[in-house]
Amino acid sequence: MTGSKELESLPSLLHLTIEEAAKGLQSGRFTSVALTKAYIARINEASEFKAVLQINPDALTVAQQLDEERVRFRGRGPLHGIPILVKDNVATKDKLDVSAGSYALLGAKPAVESSVIAKLRAAGVVVLGTTNMSEWANFRGLHVSSGWSARGGQTLGAYYPNQNPSGSSSGTAVAAALGLCTAAIGTETSGSIVEPAEFNNVVGFKPSRGLIANDGAIPISARQDIIGTLTRTVKDAAYLFTNMAGRSERDEGTWNIPFDTIPDFCTFCNTTDLSGVTIGVPRNTFRADHDPTSPVMVSFEAALKTLSSAGAKVIDRADFPEADGYKKLNDQSPNLVSLCAEFKRDIARYLQSLETNPNHIHSAEDIIEFIKTTPAEEYPDRDMDIFLWTRDKDIDVGSDKYQQRLEKELFYGGEGGILGAMDKHDLDLLVVPSSQGIAIDLAAIMGFPVLGVPLGFFPEGTPVKLEDKKPNLVNEAPGIPYSLTFISKSFSDGVLLRVGYAFEQLSRVRADGPLPFKPPTTELKDLELGVEN
User: Fold this and answer.
1) Is 434 a catalytic residue?
2) Which residue is catalytic, options 166, 168, 299, 507?
3) What InterPro entries is this protein classified in (predicted)?
């Protein structure tokens, strides 16, 4: 029987890392079954946040099998028996739906699961369940709140009552923040990992497009979409990434990975010495509301000093050559032009690949008709302006308008933007405050890796600011987090992890900062004692 002192020393699930969980499982301090049971109890306890959409009915069975395998044989590695949650737009072979939050795809599944999930399963993870998300990855309508889906309702952020969780990996970020899993999988087209990570004080990592297979994920844009991670530490992101990366025969975008062997990305997370690293600060990309005296900018300037003190060379005003041109382009016509054209093509391809499709959804137009005629989709109270724009505009991926727009975007992301700044100043990476702004948009367009790391929290006395769309969730308030975001070139993911890890260890923002305002309290020790909340 576990002694009382040992019970008290079991790790807190609010902070538990993959490394700590792996050590506990390997040493026999606790089992994957116990860990899975504890997370299920916490999910039920935190149901008001609506972060988790489904619990895998086979999660405990899989955990038991992995525990038995560990006893009979050696463990598979650090992910053996680790429970993870997966965003509701990444297919698994479990008894779980993959619906992008919409009733339109309830019961519809591809013939095979995502290559990324298959890789993680081979590494030994327990797929605990799926997380709620912004319906259709925030692509349904401009006035639909982040974190809302017809199936899952409104996810709420972890750090303030009625907080905007951001999106579209909303439930994924909140679940990681509240300790409802050891780590979680999200997706991003533009900002959908790093923005909710920022709002919920976790690490958001969007890898290079082409380093991780994207098959099995419900698409917005096959060119721009990427599966990534939301974790409590940078090293946890590296653990997952090492096991997710690699070529897949089902995603030709991975066929040009420039190295034959996927490195152990955890090796980039072992020092705070940044000697030899050059970091650029593209100030002409910052948001207009980033006043020098704002909490975000005060923390950002302090972060630059931290990076410099760690040995990095920081180049200020490493500005994008054509930042103003991109801003004008977006003012005239948002980048929905290219994404909408790609969505029409890519969603049709995905729908054609389904093994089951009970609602007979075969195109973007079918989705629109389903939303119109299904009361649970809450139309027109929840708009679908983007879908309607996609249908009504005479634009597709073969049109001159699409090609011209894409060429402009690639220019502004390349020599007119990220590459122009990095090449001019011989930079290893860029750093910006917050997870929003044109640098994040352009990194998405280019398929470049992005890493968001906790930077700070809005202080006491911060005026409460509400989102200007129903249900008017809280955007800013005392204790709500904000982040530091790093960007680099394709396949330079290791340098992002190295710098992000160093900053995380030196700043200790998440480790020492405020806790979520209402975290669940069930712990491993409660289950060991037979007590569940």
Assistant:
1) no
2) 168
3) Amidase_dom, AS_sf
